[in-house]
Amino acid sequence: MLALIPLFPFLGFLVNAVLGRRLPKAVSGGLACAAMLAAFAVALAQVMALAALPPESREISHTVFTWIKSGDFALDLTFRLDPLSALMILVITGIGSLIHIYSTAYMHEETDSDFARFFSYLNLFVFFMLLLVLGSNFLVMFVGWEGVGLCSYLLIGFYYVKKSAGDAAKKAFIVNRVGDYLFVLGALLAFVTFGSFDFQIIAAKATAMPPEVAFGTLSLITLLLFGGATGKSAQIPLYTWLPDAMEGPTPVSALIHAATMVTAGVYMIGRNAVLFEHAPITLGVIAAVGAATALFAGTIGLVQNDIKRVLAYSTVSQLGYMFLAMGVGAFGAGVFHLYTHAFFKACLFLGSGAVIHALHGEQDIRHMGGLKKGLPITYWTFLIASIAIAGVPGLAGFFSKDEILFETFAHGHQVLWVMGVVTSLLTATYMFRLVFLTFHGERRSAPATASHGHAAAHDHAHGHDDHAAQGHGGGHGGGPLHDAPPAMAIVLIVLALGSVLAGYLGVPHALGGHNSLAEWLKPSFAATSTALAECNVPVSLPGAPAGMTMAECAPGDAVPAVASAAQTAGELAIPASAQAADAHEAPADLGHGAAGEEDKTQLELTLMGVSSLIALLGIGLAAFLWLKNPQIPASMAARFPGLHKLLLNKYYVDEIYDAAIVHPIQTASSQGLWKVADTRIIDGAVNVTGYLVAGVSAVLRLFQTGSVRSYAASTFVGVVVILGYYLWR
Amino acid sequence: MVPIGHYLILSGLLFAIGTAGVFLRRNVITLLLSVEVMLNAVNLTFVAFGRQFGTVDGQIITFFVMTVAAAEAAVGLAIVIALFRHRESLSPEAFTNLKW
Fold it and tell me: Residues A399, A615: contact at Cβ < 8 Å?
């Protein structure tokens, strides 16, 4: 049953890839949507079945076949559904379905074959993403990990006739490759260390180890894995590809570069929560990198003028939040933010898509304004999602972001908390700058020629040029605007509803909720009891019968576990019993008790108040600067030209990477590898071999005279010489 | 009984005559005849040794050689006829085109 979930999108991909060119748009688009909806239905049924199980044994496994068998090593293609992957598949197939439906309207200008190509890529992406999420071991995850990277490349470069799109696609692929390399190293090191690729076995064996205070193998494994996550999830230092990835069609930005693929790194850390918990050094690095990325991307987002780029930097910033949560050990909070973010960021991207659609390819917010009247549905949904991401109380973003900030503070990371709060202010400000500049005020049109060049540069393949000329040439408020067509409008409304309601799955205890999402996810962040038993890790009974199922575990690993059983009994009691309760809050609670619980609630409410105020302050600031006094930002930019240019040029990080990495590699490749190693050494060796053979043959061919008698003579002489040798030896 | 050495000497002489014929004569048909002489020199040694050791092996091999020689002569003569039609010559020096 579980295998059906990825199978449906894969079938959709196959049909559209093979027959798509000959199918009308309604059929190819409908097929892709049907595949997604079927996958969503199966996913929903499976998650229901999962929820019916008792919390401690919530797990459904399905082994499709044995993938690799070599000597003692065996690896199955196994899908495993647990609370964490259940949430992920619902997000992927649910939001994926919505975005597929949206795309049928958004992409309707394309030719039949491009339309089918688009949907086949989109379905293939969902297939790989589901493989990534459902895989029960590192190798299956890696197939999905690489597959989504491939689809990301294909879809960023969808308008491949545009040079900028092709370049952005290559950039995304290559930058991701750097991260993937680290990921593979991490996975292989984990295999060498634990003797298995299976997440649960690794988790069970890691449970038996003491947390690594000094830098060691676990820290190295987790750091390498986190390196992979920085590539896929666009964190410092590998985030530069994501803003450029906005060259792809807008639904792609929504699905891949906001809601699903870029969260793979967060998911991967959540999946290996036990491993990461045993490497405090790595956790510190993750938290610092996450907070830094959140702040850094937030400041860039403040001055960008391309509607999609603002959202892209916002995505990078929000991913930073998720990593901050993972880094402070609040895995549930990070995944919660992943889940709410999927709703409002998808809604924002699709809303921006509707704007771009209505303006025929215009993406520069300086040329927008006053779209509120023309695009009411887009405006209201966009506004709701903006409020949600800003963190105004009552909407989805508030709950998840506050949980992250609270956990950060509660774990004693005050500096990171300040960074998070400042980012929160920035988030509210740049999001409402976007709202006000796009939808409020007067319609600002670019000079006709400039707008033409812009539209052509940005979205030529999508834009309809005759309309663009009419829309922009007519001056202020020219051409009538058409709001999102029904397929797009419905999706926007559903996602806006989600942006409001999604957070209510995780209402914190401080507000009288039950934080049911955190409860639901908790079993996924600890080793399961079956895996612990399988690996012979002494949990409840140190003297449990040895050698129950030793097959899965390397024999050497059981020995230290047993040997240190007495010593680690106390430590094991915490992960084993407290992880069933609340692993990451356990240390905070230890010294407090009931009074501490009271303090905690007090603290949480205070922090909540602070961040709510911050969010409203950010919105007010944006209203003050861009709605009431639009001359102030301009004069500020004029007063601090250096800072403004620095932000506008994204801290020159791209330029620095170009100068430090890309340029040296290019020079070394062309001057060294090409002109010396290739033309001289490799080509030279081949050519010399050829000349040598030709020269020797020129001499040897003289022996071939064509005269039968000289051949016979040489045969005769040869026989005489050989016989002579044997006779007079 | 004639000692084996006589047979071997005769056989060696015949073989030398055949070899010299192959290298010295300028007629393709004579070349073929010389080859036959060489083959029969070998046949003579086989038979001689067969007689010396009182076994029939030598005679059996000789029959094989004779069969092969007959086939070789048939093919060889056919080739000679074909070559002659082509070049109006029987000298081996006329047929040296088969080279690079």
Answer: no
In-domain check, residue B94: no
Residue A408 in this model has a pLDDT that exceeds 60 = yes
Q: Do B22 and A701 touch (CB under 8 A)?
A: no
Contact A709 B23 (CB under 8 A): yes
With a CB cutoff of 8 Å and minimum separation 6, the contacts of A343 are: A95, A385, A388, A396, A495, A498, A499, A502
Residues in chain A: 729
State the Cα–Cα distance between residues A172 and A245, nearest whole angstrom: 7
Cα dihedral A544→A545→A547→A550 (10° resolution): -40
Beta-sheet pairing, A60-70 with A73-81: antiparallel
Helix (H) or strand (E) holding A81: strand A73-81
Give the domain CATH number at B80. 1.10.287.3510
Handedness of CA A265, A268, A270, A272 (dihedral sign): negative
Residues forming beta bridges with residue A62, ordered by sequence position: A79
Per CB-CB distance under 8 Å, the chain A contacts of B99 are: 701, 704-706
Reply yes or no on whether the pLDDT at A483 is more than 70.
Answer: yes
> Could you tell me what percent of chain A has a pLDDT over 70?
87
Tell me the C-alpha distance between A441 and A423, whole Å. 26
Six-digit token pair at A414?
């005050």
pLDDT over threshold 70, residue A594:
no
Q: What is the ipTM of this complex?
A: 0.81
Instruction: Report which of A227, A214, A145 is spatially closest to residue A186, judged by C-alpha positions.
Output: A227
Q: Would the pLDDT of A287 be above 60?
A: yes
The 10s digit of each residue's pLDDT in A447-481 is 544 444 444 334 444 433 333 333 333 333 445 77
Q: Of the candidates A706, A712, A713, which has its C-beta nearest B98's C-beta?
A: A706
H-run or E-run covering A76: strand A73-81
Name the residue among A673, A671, A654 with its Cα closest to residue A175: A654
The answer, for A716 touching chain B at a CB cutoff of 8 Å, is yes
Q: Is A191 in contact with A138 (CB distance < 8 Å)? A: yes
B95 in any annotated domain: no
* Yes or no, beta carbons of A708 and B19 under 8 Å apart: no
Report if residue B98 sits inside a domain.
no
pLDDT at A127 over 70: yes
What is the sign, positive or negative, of the torsion defined by CA atoms of A181, A187, A190, A191?
negative
pTM equals: 0.76
Q: Which residue has the tokens 């957070």?
A: A503
Q: Which domain holds residue B78?
A: 4-89
φ, ψ for residue A302, nearest 5 deg: -65, -30
Distance (Å) from the C-alpha of residue A164 to the closest C-alpha of chain B?
Answer: 57
Which of the two residues, A56 and A448, has the higher pLDDT score?
A: A56
Alpha carbon A16 to its chain centroid, in Å, reads: 25
Residue A174 to residue A170: CA distance in whole angstroms: 6
The answer as to whether B59 is a domain residue is yes
Q: What is the mean pLDDT of residues A409-414?
A: 89
Residue-level pLDDT at A527? 85
Residue of A nearest to B96 (CA): A706
- Asked if the model's pLDDT at residue A542 lies above 80, the reply is no
Is A700 in CB contact (< 8 Å) with chain B?
no
Residue numbers in A near B83 (CB within 8 A): none
User: With an 8 Å Cβ cutoff, are B95 and A716 in contact?
Assistant: no
Which B residues 8-37 touch A at CB under 8 Å?
A: 19, 22-23
Give strand ranges (E) for A15-72: 60-70
Q: Quote the number of domains for chain B.
A: 1
Q: Which residues of B touch A706 (CB under 8 A)?
A: 95-99
A500 pLDDT higher than 80: yes
